[in-house]
Amino acid sequence: MRLRHIEIFHAIYTTGSITNAAKLLHVSQPAVSKVLHHAEQQLGFALFTRTKGRLVPTPEADMLFAEVDKIHQQMRSIDNTAHNIKHAHFGNINIGITPALGFSVLPKAIASYHQQHPNVSFNINTVHNDAVLQSLIEHKSDVAVLFHPSPKLGVNSIACGESELVVVYPKGLFPHLPTQLSIQELIDVTFIGISDSGPLGDMLYSRLQSENMQPHSPIQVQTYFIAARLVAQGLGVCVIDRHTAMGNVDANTAIASFTPPLAFDIRALHLQNRPLSTAVQSFLPFLQSAINC
Question: Which family does it belong to (predicted)?
Answer without folding.
Answer: Belongs to the LysR transcriptional regulatory family.
